[in-house]
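Could you join me in thinking about how sequence relates to backbone shape in a protein? Label the sequence line and the structure token line clearly, so we can match residues to local backbone shapes. Once you have written the record down, we can walk along the chain together.
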Amino acid sequence: MALKYLMDENVTPIYATQLRQKRPDLVVWSVGEIGTPPKSTLDPEINAWRYYDRHREEIDRIIVSHHTDD
């Protein structure tokens, strides 16, 4: 499993870019990028996004099984 990092919006975006170039085995996002929480998102919402990302496959499987049980 690759390590995943979500850079805070207050961190200069060049750090994420450089990490992606020097360590392609890492997954690095920055707040405000496509697919991440928008800038000015509060920490509790970012934590919920991180939880969902970490458990995405399990959550998606539960949603699919719930909707196919009808």
In short: Helices lie at 14-22, 43-54, 56-68. The beta strands are 4-7, 27-30.
